[in-house]
Structure prediction request, 581 residues.
Amino acid sequence: MNKDNMHALLSKYRFQCGILLLLLGLLGLFLYVSPQTFLHRRIYVAFMSTIPFPTLLALGLTLLIVAGELDLSFPSIMVISGLSFATVSQTTASPFLGLLAALVTGGLAGLINGVIVVLIGVPAIIATIGTQFFWRGASTLLADGLALNMTELRDTTFHHVMVGRLFDWIPMQTLWCLAVAVLFWFLLNRHIFGDDVRFIGDDINTARMMGIRTDGVRIGLFVLMGLVSALASVMVCLEMANWWPTQGEGYLLLVFAAIFLGGTSVFGGQGTISGTVIGSIIIGILEAGIISAGLSGYWTRLIHGLVIVISVSLYAMAFKSRRR
Amino acid sequence: MDTILKATSLNKSFGPIHALFDANLSINRGEVVALIGDNGAGKSTLIKILSGVFSPDSGSLQINGTAVNLRRYSVRKARSLGVETVYQERSLGEKQPLWRNVFVGRHLRNPLGFIRVKKEKEMTLAMLRNSIGLKGVGISADALVGTLSGGERQGLAISRAMHFNAGLTILDEPTTALAVGEVGRVLNFVRSIAEKGNSALFISHNLHHVHEVADRFVFVNRGTIVHQCTRAEMSVAALFDKLEQLSMAPLTPDEQR
Prediction:
């Protein structure tokens, strides 16, 4: 490989390199400040049990954002799908049927978003603010505002397969999340669906002129986001052995932050799966790092904010994305 | 002579505006036809019908001698029948690499729909070297379209149509907003379409470019085709005179209503 190729390769992957360096830098800093925490396996097992949930959501949302759409309703799609899961698995005593019910619920909620945005023509930001309230409200109403206990699922095979501990230490949700990441990477980079998604986000009129069935692809993306939300919700319910009416509420902004931290363009047309995964990990380890460094929990939000603003500013300078 | 496309009495209204009125057009194989007319004459309505963007209110269309069902006609269908449109903008995805732009909507893929990326990049590179003449160092199939000049973009879009062997390439103002040196290259691309035995429909406001490249001129005025002639019959000056005469002509009683 000659020097030119090397340079081209580096510049092609400069954002991935940058964000990977940020992750390694943060880990190095945490190791230096609190070696007693970060030199032990336990903290990493904890990360692997919590980070996959927002990462799954971020993967689905990345595809939507690349297509120039967005979805603010996924925390609420989570909660209504989780309620389906809890109810069906308790009444039928089959958590697998519960999973199917959750996926159907999530897929339908996604389909409704897609129809409102694509066929009726309401901008995604407005439509999904609306459905976000609706599904949250519907879940609270249906459950009478009460949480549902799901401890009876703890010893089922289903539990072990979804969120068990492989070799008694690797959380299964990490493997599921990696599998989804690989699948979505192929979808975005090697499949015609991903190609359509990129051109739609780039310029939807160009996409139409090139004969892409833009409506179908966009609706499909909302459905996919619904399915991913449902899967995340089922895993959260299993991990916590509980369903509660405010499930997912904290995820919204963190998931967006992870995606933009990962270098996906807010203007659509461009985005990377690897960036989203690394971005999610960074967001996920910050809090633990801050607390174990001896700072009070009050610092976490401030530092989240700093990391996000500084890194997206660096992207903006590199991409020269100022509006003119 | 062998006809690639034949449109018969096309009509199209937008509300009260009769944009296209009994328009007839036929294009022969290996011929470059120029569509000439003032702004609002109906040129773009006509090409949008031919390329499948608009559906006409009435009329018929034959491509390669076969009647097309205009109710089911779409951009996708047009492309599959070999009618390819190169718009001034909107033909390329700015933030996408060249190879994706060459194959968008028509990727080489395996039965599961996965794209054969390596093969596509090789074919893109060959296309860049041979037909567009982008031989510069560092040009790669992974370069983004946003880094190309206006002429290179037109070149890419036209070579794409040629690569997929489009029987008819419709070019909407391909030379507007180009640097002087690039115009010549784009006009050469248009000529090379005809040299390969395919046809082109060329829309431009610049009558010098039109005269340089087209075999036949078709004048559109007030939504219908009013005059046709070959290059041999008309000089550039005569083209200007004819266009001016048409746009100054008084309205017929029917149009005044």
User: Anything to note?
Assistant: The two ends of chain B are 40 Å apart (CA to CA). Chain B has a mean pLDDT of 81. The interface with chain A takes residues 53, 74-76, 79, 85, 87, 89-96, 100, 104-105, 107, 109, 113-115, 117, 137-138, 140, 142 of chain B (CB under 8 Å).
